[in-house]
Structures are given as structure tokens and as C-alpha cells.
């Protein structure tokens, strides 16, 4: 086994070890509104569940050029956002939204995604997602170089054809995950192991 001290690594070296090891990572496609009403959209793979009671999720958003990204700034200003689960049917469009656009340009428009009104928050979602969650900002933890944002889910939108008896069918959802570099993964073999009693 290699024994590596992260303090001896560059930021890029640590990034490569983390994103190569912590796989697969779910991808959140996040929509936000700027103060000027521009619909921003961006994908993030530093994303996960925090709690189910209340339902909360986390996003870690790294700075760009030493400043908070549009998504983080918009969330902190408006206190609301929409998270979409990226799947095989929309991953190409979502990938387009990673382009570095100016704050007055909409990645959602660039990618040809279709805005749809939300039920509770003022931020629109996109029609192409099979799962979207309207969120309000619960807490922001600021670190040098990034923000950790905790959002509370206030409304779920689930495509009817993937929803069965209170559960989401993982194969019908077809979620994709982020690996390292330009690599992604779909749902592969599904197996079951019973928990010990």
C-alpha cells in the first residue's frame, strides 16, 4: 500500500485521489435565479443526502478564480434552489451547462433545457429531469475556497413511470454518476444483501 500525506500533495493531486476513490458520485443539476432573474444551471458531484427527517441534501461548491460560483452566490442571495437528478436521457444536455458562461447568460437556455415553474420556491426547474427537488437553504458553512450548502427539500417532483409503491425504480430512473476525468457510469449490476438482525 502507498502511504501518502495529503499535506505533501498539491491541491490537484489531492483532487485526483479523492475523485478517483470516492466513486460513483451522484450528480446534482442545480438551477438557481440571479438577482437579475437569469436562470442559472450547473452540475455538481460533491452532492449527497444529509438527513431524511427533515429531508436535507448537501452541495459543496468550489470557488472559481477565487470567488464563489454563480450557483453558490445565487443560493446564498435567494435562499432557494432546485436539485435535479442527472440521468442517461439528460446527461449530454447537463454536461453542456458546465460551460463557463458570464452571470448574465443562462446555461439552461444554452443546453436547450425546458424551464418549468416550481410549486413552492421561485426558482424554476427543468422538465427533462425525472426527479427534481425544490429546496430552501438551511445552512451555509463557508470555508476558504468553497461553500458547503445544506438545503431542505420542500417539494419533490417524480416522474410517474419511475415511481412504484412509494419507491423510485433505479433502472427506470437511469441515474448516472461521476467518476474521474471525463468518465461517467450508469446503473450496473444490482444485488441485495440482507442486514443482520
Count of domains: 1
CATH superfamily: Electron Transport, Fmn-binding Protein, Chain A
CATH class: Mainly Beta
The run of helices and strands is HEEEEEHEHHEEEEEEHEE
CATH topology: Pnp Oxidase, Chain A
Shape: globular
Instruction: Give the total of beta strands.
Output: 14
Question: End-to-end distance, in Å?
Answer: 34 Å
SS-based class: alpha+beta
Overall average residue pLDDT: 95
Count, helices = 5
Q: Roughly what fraction of the amino acids lie in strands? A: 35-45%
Order of strands, main sheet, comes to 3-2-6-9-10-5-4
| Rg on CA atoms, Å | 17 Å
Biggest sheet architecture: 7 strands, antiparallel
The proportion of residues forming helix, as a percent range, comes to 10-25%
Q: Uncertain runs with pLDDT below 50, 5 residues or more?
A: none
Architecture, according to CATH?
A: Roll
Domain Flavin reductase like: 20-170
Keywords: Flavoprotein, FMN
Family: Belongs to the flavoredoxin family.
GO molecular function: FMN binding; oxidoreductase activity, acting on the CH-NH group of donors, NAD or NADP as acceptor
Amino acid at each position: 500500500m502507498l502511504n501518502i500525506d495529503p499535506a505533501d500533495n498539491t491541491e490537484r493531486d489531492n483532487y485526483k485521489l479523492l475523485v478517483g476513490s470516492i466513486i460513483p458520485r451522484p450528480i446534482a443539476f442545480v438551477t438557481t435565479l440571479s438577482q437579475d432573474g437569469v436562470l442559472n444551471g450547473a452540475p455538481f458531484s460533491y452532492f449527497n443526502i444529509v438527513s431524511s427527517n427533515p429531508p436535507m441534501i448537501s452541495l459543496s461548491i468550489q470557488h472559481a478564480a477565487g470567488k464563489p460560483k454563480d450557483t453558490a452566490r445565487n443560493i446564498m442571495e435567494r435562499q432557494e434552489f432546485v436539485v435535479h437528478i442527472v440521468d442517461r436521457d439528460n446527461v449530454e444536455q447537463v454536461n453542456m451547462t458546465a460551460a463557463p458562461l458570464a452571470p448574465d447568460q443562462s446555461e439552461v437556455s444554452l443546453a436547450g433545457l425546458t424551464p418549468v415553474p416550481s410549486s413552492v420556491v421561485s426558482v424554476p426547474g427543468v422538465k427533462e429531469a425525472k426527479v427534481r427537488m425544490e429546496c430552501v437553504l438551511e445552512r451555509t458553512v463557508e470555508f476558504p475556497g468553497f461553500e458547503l450548502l445544506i438545503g431542505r427539500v420542500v417539494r419533490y417532483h417524480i416522474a410517474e413511470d419511475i415511481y412504484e409503491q412509494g419507491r423510485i425504480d433505479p433502472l427506470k430512473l437511469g441515474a448516472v454518476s461521476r467518476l474521474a476525468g471525463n468518465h461517467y457510469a450508469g446503473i450496473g449490476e444490482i444485488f441485495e444483501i440482507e442486514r443482520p438482525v
